[in-house]
Structures are given as structure tokens and as C-alpha cells.
Amino acid sequence: PAAGAGPARADVPDVPDLRDVPAAERLVPAPSSLRDLPGGPFRLDHATQVVVPGRPETLRVAQQLAQQLRRSTGLPLPVLRTSRVPEGALVLRLRGAKGLPGVEGPEGYRLDVRSSRVLLEATTPAGLSRGVQTLRQLLPPQVEAQERVGAGVDWAVDAVRVVDSPRFMYRGAMLDVARHFLTVEEVKRYVDEIALYKMNVLHLHLSDDQGWRIEIEGWPRLTRSGGTTEVGGTPGGWYSQEDYREIVRYAAERFVTVVPEIDTPGHTNAALASYARLNCDGVAPPVYTGIEVGFSSLCIRKELTYRFLDDVVGQLAELTPGPWIHVGGDEALSTSDEDYRYFVERVDRIVRSHGKRTMGWAEISAADVARGGVAQYWNPASGGAEGTRTATDAVAQGLDLVMSPASRAYVDQKYDPSTPLGLAWAGPTSVEQSYDWDPVTFVDGVRERDVLGVEAPMWTETLQDLDQVEFMAFPRLPGIAEKGWSAPGGTWEEYRVRLAAQSPRWEVLGIDAYCSPEVDWP
Ligand code: TNX
What we know:
Family: Belongs to the glycosyl hydrolase 20 family.
Bound molecules: ligand TNX
Largest sheet: 8 strands, parallel, barrel
Organism: Vallicoccus soli
Pfam families: Glyco_hydro_20, Glyco_hydro_20b
CATH topology of the largest domain: TIM Barrel
Domain Glycoside hydrolase family 20 catalytic: 168-487
Oligomer: single chain
Helix content: 25-40%
InterPro entries: Beta_hexosaminidase_sua/sub (IPR025705), GH (IPR017853), Glyco_hydro_20_cat (IPR015883), Hex-like_dom2 (IPR029018), HEX_bac_N (IPR015882), TAT_signal (IPR006311)
């Protein structure tokens, strides 16, 4: 083994190095353009330096990249700030938009790999960070290892030029930490996983009937009592404001924006059980650990309800740098239509009074929500029950859309009837079905400019820890990420080849993906 930081560890799984897989078949999401360049590959070796000319904002991205590469390769890979670029370097550089034709928006990048050097350029550090994910996928999957991989891996990147920009600005993944609690460490790991596929939003479903997961000053029983239950009666858990800040900080380092959700006015049993005075009759209901929906409601005509929400939203707004606060609004089956509209309009004002934009499930379009608000479409276009709100209602309201059609984007649904985990009310949803749709044409009457992006919600009624979450997310989540990033028109036949090449990477990362028979895994 080469010299480096101690002996190579043996517990990195033995996976194919994908040396023979062409660059174009290794990338998810598909880039806007990729072409092969003449000449041999670039190789990481003992002399390779990571170079950041000029601007210091790029330094952090370079350090993150170098750190990951060092862990697995054992190479020194020093990070240098210099405008003199040495031969053989891996260069990260910020440019003005004019210098990067074809690169659009703050997250676009250009990656130019030649045997003599790698040049990654973008107009923002976020763009560089997205480009780093492409570079990762062009390296052998062993690069993902958390410890040094034994000798014999050729750390080569084929000579290519990638010019790439996202289709949508919102590419999210939701974690329901209310039905089953996930620890800060588990949430961070999921952030890493979604960032690998260039997703940029982590939506945290922080409250529901079964649990309340975020500390709110002045309302200690929300967590001390409401935080201690979850589906099935196991102990649950909650995040202190410090924990939440840590998640936000970790996500921001990966250019992922956190969207906190407090689900209202339904899905509120945990709050109602924690504070008798929040209930219309002043009596706290028992805690709930089942999986029914639609039975709880905040007390709409009580002023305390809005003082409570002002505290919750105000503190979340303070803790959250991103522009959105998600107020739920789904399945409020125990709230009258009139009360629902009154409630949503008041909550929308509360959110805006704290300088944020209101986001809610598509039902909120029944109310008059101010411009700048976002409706998250989830119920199938074919309708469902009377009063079902669809994406077109939301657009008519002047709201922007995030598309999460349950039959496609809900990664909590079973893959097929025999899947041991997950729900099936909107599925089962095969990997092909989760990929084979378009966010703009899925609902008639929606136009490209109405759509902010896509999101893959992970409900956790049946999922007890991150290992089970990963089994449902992989292999479907990368396909939803591609819906958000890549140009329309990708076909399943072509995608399944690229998806297959991801599995050795998951194995090295310790992700126990579902081994779908729809894909020819390497
Ligand atoms: C419906 S989708 C819900 C959630 C459940 C999910 C299970 C939506 C906005 N509400 O309360 O967890 O189905 O798939």
C-alpha cells in the first residue's frame, strides 16, 4: 500500500470500480451536456494539489472535497490558495456569468477534465459544490469510503467537459421525523445523501399527531411531553434549538436549505395533548401513537391558538435562514371549510410578519394566501375526495408549486405489494413509475413558470430508523432529484443504465438500497 495516514482498512466492501463505464453513463442527475475530450484521464496521485485561485468563498468547498478524497485515497491533497495554477492540479474557480457560457443560474457549473488538470468553475460556491458531486460520480465508487481503501484502485477521471445547470430552483427531500424520530446524526447523513444527487432543500416535518420534535421557548411541554411519543408507542425524541441550528448549519455547508414544517390546523394531536388550554374545551386529548389521520384540529376561534403559532413560527423563523416556513394544512378533516380558510389566512399573515414565505400542502389554496406563497401538490390529479385541491387551484390562487405527486414522488410507498416496509395507498410505486413523469405536464393547466420544483416526501409511519428510510429512498430518490435537475425528456431505458452505476457507490456508503429487479445492477 502507498504511504499515507496509517494502514488501509479492510472493511470497505469490494465493489466494481466502473472503470469501463463511460462518463455519460455514470451521472445522476443527467447533466445538460457532456462531451468526451481527447487525451487520457486525470489521475489523483501523491503530487495532486487542490487549488483555489483568488476568492476565499471557494475555500470551504475545496476543503470539503479534499477531505473526502483524502479519507478514501489516503493521498495528501493539500489545498492551496494561489492564482498561479500548477501542473496537475484540481482547480476550483469562481467566475462571472459572462465567462461561463451555457452555465445558468447560481447552481450551474462547468467541469473540464484533462489529463493535465481538472478545472471546475461556477458563478457561486453553491455551483462549485454541485460540480463537486459530478466529479465524485466520475471517480471510482471507492472514493466514498470513510477510511483508506487498499492499493489497486486507479483514482482516474475520464477527460470530459460537462456544462450543467438545474432545471428547477427547488429540489427537495422531506423527512417525517414526527411519526418516527430520527437523530441529528441520521438527519445529517440524509443531507449528505440528497446532496450527492444535487438536491438543495431538506423539508423537516417537525410535528404531527404522534409527536412534536422542536423545542419552543415558553412552551416546554411541547417537547417534554409531546416529544416523547411516536408511532407504535416507542420513545420518540426531539431537537433542542441547538440541535436544530446544527442541522441547519450542516445543511448550509452543503448548500441545502432547511424548510421547517409545523403541520396545522390538523395533525396537531401532540400539541393538543401537551397543552389542555390549546383545546376548545380545555381538555387535553390522550397521546396518539396510531397511524390514522384527520381527527385533530387546533381551536380556530381561540386567540391563544394564534399567540401559540406566533411563538412557534417566530422562533422557527429566527432559527431558519431559508425563505420558507411550511404550515402543513393537509387533511384538516376535523376543521370546517370556513374555519380552515380563516385559519390559513391568519397563519399566512403570521408567517409573513416574521419575514418568511408561507408554504403549505396544496389544500391551502382553498384560502386566500398572499403572493409568494408556495403550494405543495401531493394528491393525484385524478382527484380523490370532494373538495380535493389540485395544482391548478393553487396556480389560480397565484401560488408557486412544488410538485410531489403521491403516486410518483412519495418515497414512503411500497415498491411492489411484497415490499416489507412502507404504505401503499398511493402506490405501489416502482422505480420506473417514480421516474417516468414530468413535473410540468403531470397536471393539465400547469405551466413551467408555475413550478418551483419537486420534492420527495418520506413519511415514516412504518419506518423506524434511517436504515429503513434509505431502503425506501434508494433507488427512487435519485430519480426525483433528476426530475428536479435535468432537462425534460429523459427516458427510463436510458436512465436505468445510469442508475445501475450508482449502486456500488451506495454499497461503499453503507446504504442498503432495495435491489429492484427493474434495473440490471452491476
Ligand atoms: C398523507 S400526504 C399525509 C400524511 C401521511 C401520508 C402517508 C399528506 C400531505 N399527508 O399525513 O403520512 O399520507 O403516505
